[in-house]
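in:
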């Protein structure tokens, strides 16, 4: 797909409500400065970023979608999944089930952090959770924040090094995270009036096309409505395959940069490493689908 003449959009953005470094207000300001046509804030396991964006007010030149990114457990037939994330768009932010489930996920994160710090101190690092909290303020703490604290204390030379040597999956300070099932992730997003999309399929450990197709088909049966085909780290052939898959199975396609501010400095809002572009039309199709859902409800 190439619609470079259309305004760009960014449907995958992290704010200070999770592990991004810009506040929702700063994200909206930046989106406006870059003339983006539409933006969604998709924080990990929280809708506080979307709530805050609506509270500060959406600039009239920008179409805004509420969002979330859930880390889910893959279907049982996938033994290793890689990053299995489900994005949700157009959620009613006051939905009870959604808010309650997010609270459970946030509590699980809160219980996990002391375990990570405990492992780090057993490895000889003199660090407390209080220090990490002080660094990042009130927001939901995760491994990126712990990595930033390690960097600040001079224990590592980069965030990447902290993940590669200590915090990444299978590394000595790694602690697994509680995940909801993919069925539940899809259900709570749809229950809140939203549209569930499979995030960044290239980051899954499923590399064989037929296997990815099997996964997508099985997820569609239980409520998946689209694929994030456009993502800065997707090679062109992969993007083409995801578009083909979406076409074949009547799924929406979406795209976004996974902007995290200075946590991932190489990725810029809307344009990724520079020439990434998501056409406005994809926002319109997503929004049409939301309107149809709302009409049926
Ligand atoms: P957590 O939510 O605590 O499991 O941490 C996962 C988050 O860490 C992801 O959403 C990424 O934003 C971030 N992350 C994972 N690997 C890296 C890395 N090598 N460098 C920077 N950030 C990373
Ligand atoms: Fe993140
Ligand atoms: Fe993700
Ligand atoms: Zn993300």
């Amino acid at each position: 797909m190439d619609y470079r003449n259309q305004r760009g959009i960014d449907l995958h953005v992290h704010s200070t409500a999770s592990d991004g470094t810009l506040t929702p207000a700063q994200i909206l300001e930046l989106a406006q400065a870059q003339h983006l046509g539409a933006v969604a804030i998709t924080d990990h396991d929280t809708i506080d970023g979307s709530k805050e964006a609506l509270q500060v007010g959406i600039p009239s030149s920008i179409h805004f979608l509420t969002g979330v990114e859930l880390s889910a457990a893959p279907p049982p037939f996938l033994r290793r999944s890689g990053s299995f994330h489900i994005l949700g768009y157009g959620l009613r932010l006051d939905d009870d089930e959604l808010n309650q489930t997010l609270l459970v996920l946030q509590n699980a994160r809160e219980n996990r952090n002391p375990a990570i710090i405990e492992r780090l101190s057993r490895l000889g690092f003199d660090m407390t959770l209080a220090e990490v909290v002080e660094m990042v303020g009130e927001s939901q703490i995760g491994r990126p924040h712990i990595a930033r604290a390690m960097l600040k204390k001079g224990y590592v030379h980069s965030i990447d090094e902290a993940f590669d040597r200590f915090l990444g999956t299978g590394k000595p300070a790694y602690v697994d995270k509680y995940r909801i099932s993919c069925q539940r992730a899809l259900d709570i997003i749809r229950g809140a009036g939203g549209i569930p999309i499979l995030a960044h399929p290239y980051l899954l450990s499923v590399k064989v096309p037929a296997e990815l197709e099997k996964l997508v088909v099985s997820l569609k049966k239980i409520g998946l409505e689209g694929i994030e085909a456009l993502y800065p780290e997707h090679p062109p052939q992969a993007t083409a395959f995801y578009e083909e898959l979406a076409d074949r199975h009547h799924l929406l396609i979406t795209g976004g940069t996974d902007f995290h501010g200075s946590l991932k400095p190489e990725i810029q809002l809307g344009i990724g490493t520079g020439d990434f572009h998501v056409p406005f039309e994809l926002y319109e199709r997503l929004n049409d689908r939301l309107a149809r859902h709302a009409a049926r409800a």
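note: The beta strands are 9-10, 38-41, 63-73, 85-89, 180-181, 195-198, 226-230, 252-255.
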